[in-house]
Specification:
Elements: H1 12-22, E1 31-33, H2 35-41, E2 44-49, H3 59-68, H4 72-77, E3 79-82, H5 86-97, E4 102-106, H6 112-120, E5 124-127, H7 132-146, E6 149-150, H8 157-173, E7 179-183, H9 188-200, E8 205-211, H10 216-222, H11 246-253, E9 256-260, H12 262-276, H13 286-293, H14 295-298, E10 302-307, H15 314-327, E11 331-339, H16 344-354, E12 358-365, E13 375-383, H17 387-399, E14 405-407
Parallel strand pairs: 2-10, 3-4, 3-6, 4-5, 7-8, 7-10, 8-9
Antiparallel strand pairs: 1-2, 11-13, 11-14, 12-13
Helix pairs in contact: 1-3, 1-8, 3-5, 3-8, 5-6, 8-9, 9-11, 12-13, 12-15
Protein backbone atom coordinates (compact mmCIF):
# COMPACT_ATOMS: atom_id res chain seq x y z
CA UNK A 1 0.00 0.00 0.00
CA UNK A 2 1.52 3.33 -1.07
CA UNK A 3 0.92 7.06 -0.72
CA UNK A 4 0.92 7.91 -4.42
CA UNK A 5 -2.82 7.49 -5.02
CA UNK A 6 -5.81 9.44 -3.62
CA UNK A 7 -6.84 6.30 -1.71
CA UNK A 8 -3.27 5.74 -0.47
CA UNK A 9 -3.25 2.62 -2.59
CA UNK A 10 -6.00 1.10 -0.42
CA UNK A 11 -8.70 -0.67 -2.40
CA UNK A 12 -11.83 -2.68 -1.70
CA UNK A 13 -9.67 -5.79 -2.15
CA UNK A 14 -7.37 -4.67 0.68
CA UNK A 15 -10.37 -4.18 2.95
CA UNK A 16 -11.75 -7.59 2.05
CA UNK A 17 -8.33 -9.06 2.88
CA UNK A 18 -8.39 -7.19 6.20
CA UNK A 19 -11.71 -8.83 6.96
CA UNK A 20 -10.12 -12.24 6.59
CA UNK A 21 -7.32 -11.18 8.95
CA UNK A 22 -9.70 -10.10 11.72
CA UNK A 23 -12.03 -13.10 11.35
CA UNK A 24 -12.22 -14.95 14.64
CA UNK A 25 -10.42 -12.14 16.48
CA UNK A 26 -12.82 -9.17 16.12
CA UNK A 27 -16.58 -9.47 16.50
CA UNK A 28 -18.88 -8.98 13.49
CA UNK A 29 -21.21 -6.65 15.38
CA UNK A 30 -24.98 -6.33 14.80
CA UNK A 31 -26.44 -3.90 12.25
CA UNK A 32 -30.03 -3.37 13.34
CA UNK A 33 -33.02 -1.17 12.47
CA UNK A 34 -33.74 1.57 15.02
CA UNK A 35 -37.44 2.47 14.76
CA UNK A 36 -37.34 4.84 17.74
CA UNK A 37 -34.43 6.78 16.27
CA UNK A 38 -36.24 6.80 12.93
CA UNK A 39 -39.27 8.37 14.60
CA UNK A 40 -37.01 10.90 16.34
CA UNK A 41 -35.15 11.97 13.19
CA UNK A 42 -37.59 11.43 10.34
CA UNK A 43 -35.19 9.11 8.51
CA UNK A 44 -35.05 5.30 8.33
CA UNK A 45 -32.17 4.60 10.69
CA UNK A 46 -29.99 1.52 11.04
CA UNK A 47 -27.28 1.31 13.71
CA UNK A 48 -24.00 -0.60 13.62
CA UNK A 49 -23.22 -1.50 17.24
CA UNK A 50 -19.43 -1.30 17.41
CA UNK A 51 -19.78 -0.55 21.13
CA UNK A 52 -20.29 -4.32 21.53
CA UNK A 53 -16.67 -5.13 20.67
CA UNK A 54 -14.60 -6.55 23.55
CA UNK A 55 -12.99 -3.14 24.11
CA UNK A 56 -16.27 -1.41 23.19
CA UNK A 57 -15.14 0.35 20.02
CA UNK A 58 -14.40 -0.14 16.32
CA UNK A 59 -10.69 0.46 16.90
CA UNK A 60 -10.04 -3.26 17.32
CA UNK A 61 -10.41 -3.75 13.58
CA UNK A 62 -7.52 -1.55 12.51
CA UNK A 63 -5.35 -2.49 15.49
CA UNK A 64 -5.60 -6.20 14.73
CA UNK A 65 -4.76 -5.74 11.05
CA UNK A 66 -1.75 -3.56 11.84
CA UNK A 67 -0.38 -5.88 14.55
CA UNK A 68 -0.86 -8.91 12.33
CA UNK A 69 1.36 -7.25 9.69
CA UNK A 70 4.40 -6.96 11.97
CA UNK A 71 7.55 -9.03 11.50
CA UNK A 72 8.77 -11.36 14.24
CA UNK A 73 11.48 -8.85 15.18
CA UNK A 74 8.99 -5.98 15.38
CA UNK A 75 6.72 -8.04 17.60
CA UNK A 76 9.59 -8.88 19.92
CA UNK A 77 10.66 -5.22 20.31
CA UNK A 78 7.11 -4.08 20.96
CA UNK A 79 4.75 -1.36 19.78
CA UNK A 80 3.74 2.12 20.84
CA UNK A 81 0.58 4.13 20.23
CA UNK A 82 -1.00 7.40 21.28
CA UNK A 83 -4.72 7.59 21.93
CA UNK A 84 -7.49 9.27 23.89
CA UNK A 85 -8.67 5.83 24.90
CA UNK A 86 -10.30 3.54 22.36
CA UNK A 87 -7.28 2.95 20.11
CA UNK A 88 -5.26 2.49 23.30
CA UNK A 89 -7.51 -0.28 24.54
CA UNK A 90 -7.68 -1.95 21.15
CA UNK A 91 -3.90 -2.00 20.70
CA UNK A 92 -3.38 -3.17 24.29
CA UNK A 93 -5.95 -5.96 23.99
CA UNK A 94 -4.78 -7.36 20.66
CA UNK A 95 -1.10 -6.88 21.49
CA UNK A 96 -1.66 -8.99 24.59
CA UNK A 97 -3.38 -11.71 22.57
CA UNK A 98 -0.39 -11.74 20.17
CA UNK A 99 2.14 -11.47 23.05
CA UNK A 100 3.49 -8.15 21.82
CA UNK A 101 4.67 -5.63 24.49
CA UNK A 102 2.65 -2.41 24.19
CA UNK A 103 3.25 1.14 25.44
CA UNK A 104 0.40 3.65 25.15
CA UNK A 105 0.70 7.44 25.55
CA UNK A 106 -2.63 9.00 26.56
CA UNK A 107 -3.62 12.64 27.21
CA UNK A 108 -3.86 13.60 30.87
CA UNK A 109 -7.51 14.52 30.20
CA UNK A 110 -8.45 10.95 29.24
CA UNK A 111 -11.37 9.61 31.32
CA UNK A 112 -10.15 7.28 34.05
CA UNK A 113 -12.38 4.46 32.82
CA UNK A 114 -10.34 4.34 29.59
CA UNK A 115 -6.98 4.52 31.36
CA UNK A 116 -7.92 1.70 33.74
CA UNK A 117 -9.22 -0.44 30.88
CA UNK A 118 -6.00 0.02 28.90
CA UNK A 119 -3.84 -0.93 31.87
CA UNK A 120 -6.02 -3.97 32.54
CA UNK A 121 -4.86 -5.48 29.23
CA UNK A 122 -1.24 -5.30 30.37
CA UNK A 123 -0.06 -2.24 28.47
CA UNK A 124 2.28 0.38 29.94
CA UNK A 125 0.37 3.68 30.06
CA UNK A 126 2.15 7.04 29.91
CA UNK A 127 0.04 10.14 30.55
CA UNK A 128 1.26 13.23 28.70
CA UNK A 129 -0.33 16.26 27.03
CA UNK A 130 -3.75 17.88 27.03
CA UNK A 131 -4.74 16.20 23.76
CA UNK A 132 -3.65 13.51 21.34
CA UNK A 133 -1.44 15.90 19.33
CA UNK A 134 0.70 16.54 22.43
CA UNK A 135 0.61 12.83 23.28
CA UNK A 136 1.89 12.04 19.80
CA UNK A 137 5.03 14.10 20.37
CA UNK A 138 5.84 12.11 23.51
CA UNK A 139 5.01 8.81 21.81
CA UNK A 140 7.33 9.56 18.89
CA UNK A 141 10.15 10.33 21.34
CA UNK A 142 9.64 7.07 23.21
CA UNK A 143 9.44 5.15 19.92
CA UNK A 144 12.86 6.47 18.89
CA UNK A 145 14.43 5.84 22.30
CA UNK A 146 13.18 2.25 22.59
CA UNK A 147 13.08 1.35 18.88
CA UNK A 148 9.36 0.51 19.06
CA UNK A 149 7.01 0.08 16.10
CA UNK A 150 4.51 2.87 15.74
CA UNK A 151 0.80 1.93 15.61
CA UNK A 152 -0.87 5.13 14.50
CA UNK A 153 -4.57 5.49 15.39
CA UNK A 154 -5.61 6.63 11.92
CA UNK A 155 -2.76 7.55 9.55
CA UNK A 156 -1.74 4.01 8.59
CA UNK A 157 -2.85 2.00 5.55
CA UNK A 158 -3.30 -1.22 7.54
CA UNK A 159 -5.37 0.57 10.15
CA UNK A 160 -7.52 2.27 7.51
CA UNK A 161 -8.15 -1.05 5.77
CA UNK A 162 -9.14 -2.64 9.06
CA UNK A 163 -11.60 0.12 9.89
CA UNK A 164 -13.12 -0.23 6.44
CA UNK A 165 -14.41 -3.70 7.33
CA UNK A 166 -17.14 -1.92 9.31
CA UNK A 167 -18.74 -0.75 6.06
CA UNK A 168 -18.51 -4.22 4.52
CA UNK A 169 -20.60 -5.63 7.33
CA UNK A 170 -23.07 -2.74 7.26
CA UNK A 171 -23.78 -3.05 3.55
CA UNK A 172 -24.02 -6.83 3.73
CA UNK A 173 -26.75 -6.41 6.34
CA UNK A 174 -28.57 -3.52 4.62
CA UNK A 175 -27.54 -3.23 1.00
CA UNK A 176 -29.71 -0.30 -0.07
CA UNK A 177 -28.58 2.42 2.34
CA UNK A 178 -28.68 5.95 0.91
CA UNK A 179 -26.09 7.45 3.22
CA UNK A 180 -23.54 6.53 5.87
CA UNK A 181 -22.96 9.09 8.63
CA UNK A 182 -19.54 8.58 10.20
CA UNK A 183 -17.68 10.41 13.00
CA UNK A 184 -14.33 11.92 12.00
CA UNK A 185 -11.36 12.49 14.26
CA UNK A 186 -8.17 11.82 12.36
CA UNK A 187 -10.24 10.20 9.63
CA UNK A 188 -9.20 6.54 9.73
CA UNK A 189 -12.72 5.14 10.16
CA UNK A 190 -14.25 7.40 7.54
CA UNK A 191 -11.42 6.73 5.06
CA UNK A 192 -11.70 2.97 5.29
CA UNK A 193 -15.49 2.99 5.26
CA UNK A 194 -15.64 5.37 2.30
CA UNK A 195 -13.30 3.22 0.21
CA UNK A 196 -15.30 0.10 1.06
CA UNK A 197 -18.75 1.63 0.64
CA UNK A 198 -17.94 3.44 -2.60
CA UNK A 199 -16.30 0.27 -3.90
CA UNK A 200 -19.54 -1.62 -3.33
CA UNK A 201 -22.00 1.15 -4.27
CA UNK A 202 -20.59 4.24 -5.97
CA UNK A 203 -23.83 6.19 -5.44
CA UNK A 204 -23.91 5.89 -1.65
CA UNK A 205 -23.38 9.22 0.11
CA UNK A 206 -20.70 9.55 2.79
CA UNK A 207 -21.21 12.30 5.37
CA UNK A 208 -18.65 12.96 8.07
CA UNK A 209 -19.26 14.51 11.49
CA UNK A 210 -16.83 16.43 13.67
CA UNK A 211 -17.22 18.04 17.08
CA UNK A 212 -17.73 21.78 16.54
CA UNK A 213 -14.82 22.45 18.89
CA UNK A 214 -12.44 20.36 16.74
CA UNK A 215 -13.24 20.96 13.04
CA UNK A 216 -9.76 19.95 11.90
CA UNK A 217 -10.71 17.87 8.85
CA UNK A 218 -13.30 20.38 7.70
CA UNK A 219 -10.75 23.19 8.07
CA UNK A 220 -8.22 21.23 6.03
CA UNK A 221 -10.64 20.36 3.23
CA UNK A 222 -12.48 23.69 2.98
CA UNK A 223 -9.56 25.94 3.76
CA UNK A 224 -11.41 27.31 6.79
CA UNK A 225 -9.72 28.65 9.90
CA UNK A 226 -12.15 27.72 12.63
CA UNK A 227 -10.55 27.61 16.06
CA UNK A 228 -9.65 24.26 17.58
CA UNK A 229 -9.82 23.43 21.26
CA UNK A 230 -11.95 23.20 24.35
CA UNK A 231 -13.53 20.56 26.56
CA UNK A 232 -15.75 18.27 24.49
CA UNK A 233 -17.83 15.25 25.37
CA UNK A 234 -16.54 13.71 22.14
CA UNK A 235 -12.91 13.45 23.22
CA UNK A 236 -12.46 10.43 20.95
CA UNK A 237 -12.65 12.70 17.88
CA UNK A 238 -11.02 15.77 19.44
CA UNK A 239 -8.10 15.74 17.01
CA UNK A 240 -6.10 18.78 15.95
CA UNK A 241 -3.93 17.09 13.29
CA UNK A 242 -5.59 15.27 10.38
CA UNK A 243 -3.88 12.36 8.67
CA UNK A 244 -1.68 12.73 5.62
CA UNK A 245 -3.23 9.53 4.28
CA UNK A 246 -6.80 10.20 5.35
CA UNK A 247 -7.12 13.78 4.10
CA UNK A 248 -7.02 13.06 0.34
CA UNK A 249 -9.30 10.02 0.75
CA UNK A 250 -11.94 12.02 2.57
CA UNK A 251 -11.53 14.93 0.16
CA UNK A 252 -12.22 12.59 -2.76
CA UNK A 253 -15.00 10.40 -1.35
CA UNK A 254 -16.90 12.32 1.34
CA UNK A 255 -19.63 14.73 0.22
CA UNK A 256 -19.79 16.86 3.36
CA UNK A 257 -18.57 17.24 6.92
CA UNK A 258 -21.07 18.47 9.50
CA UNK A 259 -20.17 20.08 12.81
CA UNK A 260 -22.14 19.26 15.97
CA UNK A 261 -22.25 21.24 19.20
CA UNK A 262 -22.06 19.81 22.70
CA UNK A 263 -25.80 19.99 23.35
CA UNK A 264 -26.62 17.80 20.35
CA UNK A 265 -23.88 15.33 21.30
CA UNK A 266 -25.40 15.09 24.79
CA UNK A 267 -28.86 14.59 23.32
CA UNK A 268 -27.56 11.80 21.08
CA UNK A 269 -25.82 10.00 23.95
CA UNK A 270 -29.04 10.21 25.95
CA UNK A 271 -31.14 8.99 23.00
CA UNK A 272 -28.98 5.91 22.58
CA UNK A 273 -29.31 5.14 26.26
CA UNK A 274 -33.00 5.84 26.75
CA UNK A 275 -34.36 4.77 23.35
CA UNK A 276 -31.92 2.06 22.25
CA UNK A 277 -30.86 0.92 25.74
CA UNK A 278 -27.20 0.99 24.76
CA UNK A 279 -24.11 2.94 25.83
CA UNK A 280 -22.57 5.53 23.51
CA UNK A 281 -19.65 7.81 24.27
CA UNK A 282 -19.69 11.29 22.80
CA UNK A 283 -17.69 10.40 19.70
CA UNK A 284 -19.79 7.27 19.21
CA UNK A 285 -22.98 9.31 19.20
CA UNK A 286 -21.70 12.03 16.84
CA UNK A 287 -23.49 10.63 13.79
CA UNK A 288 -26.85 10.66 15.54
CA UNK A 289 -26.05 14.13 16.89
CA UNK A 290 -25.72 15.38 13.31
CA UNK A 291 -29.12 13.93 12.44
CA UNK A 292 -30.67 15.64 15.46
CA UNK A 293 -29.00 18.94 14.56
CA UNK A 294 -29.94 18.83 10.86
CA UNK A 295 -32.95 16.50 10.49
CA UNK A 296 -34.00 18.01 7.14
CA UNK A 297 -30.71 16.84 5.64
CA UNK A 298 -31.64 13.18 6.26
CA UNK A 299 -35.43 13.14 6.28
CA UNK A 300 -36.86 10.25 4.25
CA UNK A 301 -33.45 8.68 3.59
CA UNK A 302 -32.18 5.26 4.60
CA UNK A 303 -29.30 6.08 6.94
CA UNK A 304 -26.56 3.92 8.40
CA UNK A 305 -25.05 5.10 11.69
CA UNK A 306 -21.91 3.75 13.31
CA UNK A 307 -22.15 3.70 17.10
CA UNK A 308 -18.39 3.53 17.07
CA UNK A 309 -17.65 3.54 20.81
CA UNK A 310 -19.31 3.07 24.17
CA UNK A 311 -16.52 3.92 26.62
CA UNK A 312 -18.12 6.74 28.56
CA UNK A 313 -17.43 7.72 32.16
CA UNK A 314 -20.48 6.63 34.23
CA UNK A 315 -20.40 9.92 36.15
CA UNK A 316 -20.59 11.89 32.90
CA UNK A 317 -23.39 9.67 31.63
CA UNK A 318 -25.40 10.25 34.81
CA UNK A 319 -24.94 14.01 34.42
CA UNK A 320 -26.11 13.87 30.80
CA UNK A 321 -29.26 12.01 31.79
CA UNK A 322 -30.14 14.60 34.43
CA UNK A 323 -29.41 17.48 32.04
CA UNK A 324 -31.72 15.94 29.43
CA UNK A 325 -34.48 15.64 32.02
CA UNK A 326 -33.99 19.36 32.69
CA UNK A 327 -34.15 20.20 28.96
CA UNK A 328 -37.38 18.22 28.69
CA UNK A 329 -38.81 20.04 31.75
CA UNK A 330 -39.06 16.74 33.59
CA UNK A 331 -36.86 18.15 36.35
CA UNK A 332 -37.81 21.73 37.20
CA UNK A 333 -36.83 24.15 39.95
CA UNK A 334 -38.93 26.98 41.39
CA UNK A 335 -37.88 29.81 43.68
CA UNK A 336 -40.51 30.95 46.18
CA UNK A 337 -40.57 33.74 48.72
CA UNK A 338 -42.61 32.50 51.66
CA UNK A 339 -43.66 33.73 55.13
CA UNK A 340 -41.29 32.46 57.81
CA UNK A 341 -43.75 30.67 60.06
CA UNK A 342 -44.43 27.06 61.10
CA UNK A 343 -46.39 24.89 58.72
CA UNK A 344 -45.64 26.68 55.42
CA UNK A 345 -43.25 24.01 54.20
CA UNK A 346 -45.90 21.42 54.91
CA UNK A 347 -48.47 23.40 52.91
CA UNK A 348 -46.13 23.56 49.93
CA UNK A 349 -45.29 19.87 50.15
CA UNK A 350 -49.00 19.01 50.29
CA UNK A 351 -49.76 21.25 47.31
CA UNK A 352 -46.96 19.68 45.24
CA UNK A 353 -48.23 16.23 46.13
CA UNK A 354 -51.76 17.16 45.08
CA UNK A 355 -50.58 18.24 41.63
CA UNK A 356 -48.45 15.11 41.19
CA UNK A 357 -44.99 16.64 41.57
CA UNK A 358 -42.25 14.52 43.14
CA UNK A 359 -39.96 16.63 45.36
CA UNK A 360 -36.26 15.98 44.66
CA UNK A 361 -34.58 18.77 46.64
CA UNK A 362 -35.44 21.69 48.93
CA UNK A 363 -33.17 24.60 49.87
CA UNK A 364 -34.62 26.82 52.62
CA UNK A 365 -32.74 30.05 53.50
CA UNK A 366 -33.53 33.15 55.51
CA UNK A 367 -30.37 35.28 55.47
CA UNK A 368 -30.82 37.23 52.22
CA UNK A 369 -31.30 41.00 52.04
CA UNK A 370 -33.73 40.66 49.12
CA UNK A 371 -36.08 38.60 51.34
CA UNK A 372 -38.37 40.30 53.90
CA UNK A 373 -37.18 40.07 57.51
CA UNK A 374 -40.15 37.85 58.33
CA UNK A 375 -39.81 35.83 55.16
CA UNK A 376 -37.62 33.14 53.66
CA UNK A 377 -36.50 31.98 50.27
CA UNK A 378 -37.36 28.46 49.21
CA UNK A 379 -35.85 26.74 46.20
CA UNK A 380 -37.65 23.50 45.41
CA UNK A 381 -36.69 21.04 42.67
CA UNK A 382 -39.37 18.63 41.48
CA UNK A 383 -39.79 15.81 39.00
CA UNK A 384 -42.61 16.29 36.49
CA UNK A 385 -44.24 14.28 33.72
CA UNK A 386 -43.48 16.82 30.97
CA UNK A 387 -43.43 20.53 30.15
CA UNK A 388 -47.21 20.88 30.39
CA UNK A 389 -47.18 19.33 33.84
CA UNK A 390 -44.40 21.74 34.89
CA UNK A 391 -46.59 24.66 33.79
CA UNK A 392 -49.53 23.27 35.81
CA UNK A 393 -47.31 23.16 38.90
CA UNK A 394 -46.20 26.75 38.32
CA UNK A 395 -49.79 27.94 38.06
CA UNK A 396 -50.81 26.02 41.20
CA UNK A 397 -48.02 27.69 43.18
CA UNK A 398 -49.06 31.09 41.83
CA UNK A 399 -52.70 30.48 42.77
CA UNK A 400 -51.58 29.62 46.31
CA UNK A 401 -49.83 33.00 46.60
CA UNK A 402 -46.20 31.81 46.60
CA UNK A 403 -45.11 33.93 43.57
CA UNK A 404 -42.95 31.19 42.02
CA UNK A 405 -40.13 31.87 39.54
CA UNK A 406 -38.69 29.17 37.29
CA UNK A 407 -34.92 28.84 37.74
CA UNK A 408 -32.16 26.72 36.30
CA UNK A 409 -31.72 23.56 38.36
CA UNK A 410 -28.03 24.23 38.96
CA UNK A 411 -28.86 27.68 40.32
CA UNK A 412 -31.34 26.14 42.77
CA UNK A 413 -28.46 24.87 44.88
CA UNK A 414 -26.47 28.14 44.97
Amino acid sequence: MTRDQPNAGITLAHIEAARRIIAGHVLPTPMLPAPKLSALTGAEVFVKYENLQVTNSFKERGARVKLASLTADERKRGVIAMSAGNHAQAVAYHAASLRIPATIVMPVTTPFVKIAATESYGAEVVLDGEGVSESQVRAETIARERNLTWVHPYDDAHVIAGQGTTALEMLEAVGDLDVLVVPIGGGGLMSGMAIAAKGINSSIEMIGVEAALYPSMRNAIRGETRELGGATLAEGIAVKNVGALTLPIIQALVSDILLVDEEHIERAVNAYLTLQKTMAEGAGAAGLAAMLAEPARFRGKKVGLVLCGGNIDPRILASIMVRELERDARIVSFRLTIPDRPGVLGQIATLLGQVGANILAVDHKRLFLDVPAKGARLDVTVETRDGAHAEDILQALKAAGFAPVRIETGAAMD
